[in-house]
Amino acid sequence: MTHAILLVNCEDRTGLVATLSQFVHEHGGNIIDADQHTEELDGRFYMRLVWELDGFALGRDEIADALNAIADKYQMEHQLMFDDQEERIAVFCSKASHCVHDLIMRQEMGELSGRIQVIISNHDNLKSLAESFSIPYVHIPVTADDKASAEAKQQAVLEEYKIDTVVLARYMQILSAEFVERWQHHIINIHHSFLPAFAGARPYHQAKERGVKIIGATAHYVTSALDEGPIIEQNVCRVSHRDTVDDMIRKGRDLERQVLAHALRMHLQKRVLPISNRTIVFA
Amino acid sequence: MTHAILLVNCEDRTGLVATLSQFVHEHGGNIIDADQHTEELDGRFYMRLVWELDGFALGRDEIADALNAIADKYQMEHQLMFDDQEERIAVFCSKASHCVHDLIMRQEMGELSGRIQVIISNHDNLKSLAESFSIPYVHIPVTADDKASAEAKQQAVLEEYKIDTVVLARYMQILSAEFVERWQHHIINIHHSFLPAFAGARPYHQAKERGVKIIGATAHYVTSALDEGPIIEQNVCRVSHRDTVDDMIRKGRDLERQVLAHALRMHLQKRVLPISNRTIVFA
Amino acid sequence: MTHAILLVNCEDRTGLVATLSQFVHEHGGNIIDADQHTEELDGRFYMRLVWELDGFALGRDEIADALNAIADKYQMEHQLMFDDQEERIAVFCSKASHCVHDLIMRQEMGELSGRIQVIISNHDNLKSLAESFSIPYVHIPVTADDKASAEAKQQAVLEEYKIDTVVLARYMQILSAEFVERWQHHIINIHHSFLPAFAGARPYHQAKERGVKIIGATAHYVTSALDEGPIIEQNVCRVSHRDTVDDMIRKGRDLERQVLAHALRMHLQKRVLPISNRTIVFA
Amino acid sequence: MTHAILLVNCEDRTGLVATLSQFVHEHGGNIIDADQHTEELDGRFYMRLVWELDGFALGRDEIADALNAIADKYQMEHQLMFDDQEERIAVFCSKASHCVHDLIMRQEMGELSGRIQVIISNHDNLKSLAESFSIPYVHIPVTADDKASAEAKQQAVLEEYKIDTVVLARYMQILSAEFVERWQHHIINIHHSFLPAFAGARPYHQAKERGVKIIGATAHYVTSALDEGPIIEQNVCRVSHRDTVDDMIRKGRDLERQVLAHALRMHLQKRVLPISNRTIVFA
Q1: What gap in Å lies between CA A177 and CA A151, rounded to an integer?
Q2: A245-276, pLDDT tens digit by residue?
Q3: What are the tens digits of pLDDT across the range C206-226?
């Protein structure tokens, strides 16, 4: 059964829930999930609404048109999606395999509500992995002085495969501000996080030196500020003095896999609303 | 600012969200929180709706009347509450202090959206604790053959203090089926294990013998089936062979305090909907 | 650098740590990890001792002989292992891929201190997965009336590949008491629930019906008592009414992968000492 | 039954475990807990050793002398303690009650292996709380220009009560470098922690603005570097957009209570070895 999913974001006022739910009702739709939030920080109204498309009086384009009219009236930002539309995903990676392989494994098990169309890497070591699961693999080397041309090639591949969402699965290159802006809220990155935070290289070594008792990972939308951007998901695990740096890296890999997969899942199900530098996740 | 909180439970059909939100809107109410769920297990519609009472066109009794009319039409079960009504709580305890003391501490910090009116115990060892926080303490001894008379006295105290919710804070006596039924969905118990594992006596000893790696605690509404009843909240922590039974009991106390306080908080905010032997918690 | 790992288990008495560490010292060994536990349940002495083999005065057989002499004197049960010996692993599976695939992925990343020599399944759907990672795959169908002959074939494969440890990676057949006994403490199973709760079939459905707020997975050594056996590792995650049975199964898969991999890791590093129906894990 | 607890820290070499355990054995002591760690970061040897004092051939002073001789020979740093010696604790607080009250509650339940001798505060609002549990309360106001004289008074109180360990239970004043140095590794502080970290004021507001999904708390020994110092314990909990800043503060209070109590417990049981800016916790 197919569902329409609507994400809405506007200034709060009375009647918004009534207006949106009335719209669904008057065309014969049955709401099966409604989650609304009024935010104390900005006084705004946020809502995610899911209804069954079966028997709905309007066609998909008509829904879009009708919603545009409502959105204009209430100055809403909104996104509309149908859950039989398979999101098209590109995975960017470098040498590390754990996040890429994990996403492939989840795709094989039918866990992703989307499909990895292509893997793009600045290295070629994961080519055979991709091929054994029949996923196209494009090797685009990146060097300090050909960044622009590499990004042009990456962009071309994304267009060729009609990509909706880019996942940086431990991709170790920094994307340009232009690239990031073009794909705003459509690139998800995973990185390690710690209490306290460690800027700079070799964070697990720093964490070991500092004797932290918990390590973490954070998935976020990519913005031009490095390792910043709206946080979608975080998770942590315990470490002790018995954990070597290698143990921490291994535990970190597990965290990165889980957190990235969860964030992607939330994103693909249109559960994530980015607002300024944070997100609302209708989990 | 005062809010109305509405909990609804009925057979699913189209138009329910629209009907309820339209009702709020047409009387000038602003919805600030709406959370709706359609359950796959039973195909039913569950919703929690919160709106600002300020400027609402109907008085409290009028709201109740109007909602009764809607509820009749759609065969809804519903509960209506206003969050300036302080729930009146009775705490039942025996000798163990940790849950009682924790609840008092939270009350002192303003964490409870309710007020402990009276503490009832079959022992008198916590009397001075209660008194140092100016909470009435009623000592009602219970013996095997005077259970009925003890419960009659307890009931009288609950009526005297106009109690809404009873919290069993490690109360070690079993309540009669009649008592439990009279207070259905208004008695919260904390069980010192991760139900349904290790129901019954000495769960920490059972857990130690079994070598489990995680222990837990469960808060639930009390039903006449011992250690059963709809689960409101659970939490766990890790243990190892290094933990003695006493260590597990100590860790368990921390869990019990957290889980009971959280469950009570959810209950007082009318976030918990019991359905058959489970709950929906609009967290 | 190679290490000797010694696991010891005997009745407690004075001088055991001194005797064992003196043995290592007098032959020029450097202890790099010592973890000792005296258990309140049975008053017994448990110890794990790791020392550098480099420069140790005794050869491997001589160590074994010398330890046997000590063990006789103190009525110790003990296991001796050298960490350059790669444990030989067989993975049993049925149709579900997630645990098998996860173990393969970890092997590819160098996380296992052992090597999967063969995958044995009563189905053939994971053959191509195994082959794409160059792991032999033996399809041994099992039907109700040929169980004994299937087990004979399985045993032959285990012998052919000189297997040390068998991992049941969601293998859905029940092994005979004879088979289990022959491989006592060398078969690790992953059970898709938080044992001892919800033993038996369809635990996620049971959990959904019961409205639990936390689900878990348990890895344990297999004994002839179904869903029993010494627990090696458990982990949990939160669920709510919003999780369908399918969501719980998906979350459960993640748990099962993590818990099984962790248990196997502990086992391969000789960190697990099974005692009656529990374990000590020197983590 | 009384135990001796020995913490040792020295350069690694062969024979250390043998020497220490032989020392215990030759005087008739029974080791009931031995935990040893060789650290990859610095190549040093760390050990915690616990033995029964009952029947031990040496008196307490003789043990100390004998250990000093061993320590000299191997250039060990070491601490010796007997677990019938009740550590004497001073709690510093300001206006917030949660950590102080929690520690009192744990003391009442017999969870602390130490005793709160005195509460020192720059405010007087918690005086009646302290008094209702018969704990001396000393009000020492602190203003920007009388810091030195306030610290002199605090120091006098600590000496009067023969304090071993100072707990900063949300004490909102910064201690001078001199004070901190005098009490090196004997002052434990609790503060909130986040991923990413937020320097400066109102961290929960910052965390809300940043949309973090996890908040945490860290207990550490106080050094002259603000909010730095060797970490003893950390813990975290989940938050979402539904949590207001007040909710986050409330959840943070729970974390702070747990983490501080756990860190203090580890410290009192001589399980914590501070090394440069980290700790080893023999948990």
Answers
A1: 11
A2: 999 999 999 999 999 999 999 999 999 999 98
A3: 888 889 999 999 999 999 987
> Are the C-beta atoms of residues C31 and D16 closer than 8 Å to each other?
yes
What is the nearest CA distance from B192 to chain A, expressed in angstroms? Answer: 25
Q: Which chains have at least 3 CB atom pairs separated by less than 8 Å from chain B? A: A, C, D
In this structure, the number of other CB atoms found within 10 A of the CB of residue C240 comes to 15
CB-nearest to A196 from D193, D242, D279 is: D193
Q: Tell me which chain B residue has its CA closest to the CA of residue A21.
A: B18
Cβ within 8 Å, pair B109-D132: no
- 0.90 exceeded by pTM: yes
Two structure tokens written together for C136: 């032999």
Q: Does B44 touch chain D (CB under 8 A)?
A: no
Tokens representing D162 are: 């023969």
- Contacts of B180-184 with C-beta under 8 Å, sequence gap 24+, read B180/B222, B180/B223, B180/B224, B181/B224, B182/B155, B183/B222, B184/B221, B184/B223
Q: Does B83 touch chain D (CB under 8 A)?
A: no
Residue D195 reports pLDDT greater than 90: no
CA triplet D75, D77, D78: central angle to 5 degrees?
Answer: 125
Q: Which two tokens stand for residue D60?
A: 């307490």
One-letter amino acid at A61 equals D
CB of D41 within 8 Å of a chain A CB? The answer is yes
Domain residue spans in chain B?
Answer: 3-82, 87-281
Q: Please give the pLDDT value at position C197.
A: 82
The token pair at A197 is 């935070």
Q: If you search the block for the tokens 């809107």, which residue do you land on?
A: B25
As a whole number of angstroms, the distance between CA A17 and CA A45 comes to: 9
Q: Residue B195: its pLDDT value, please?
A: 76
The architecture in CATH of the region D3-82 reads 2-Layer Sandwich (3.30)
Residue B8 in contact with residue B46, Cβ under 8 Å?
A: yes
Do A47 and B32 count as a contact with CB atoms less than 8 A apart?
no
Tell me the two tokens of residue C148: 């004994």
Distance CA B80, CA B71 (A): 12
- How would CATH label the architecture of D87-281? 3-Layer(aba) Sandwich (3.40)
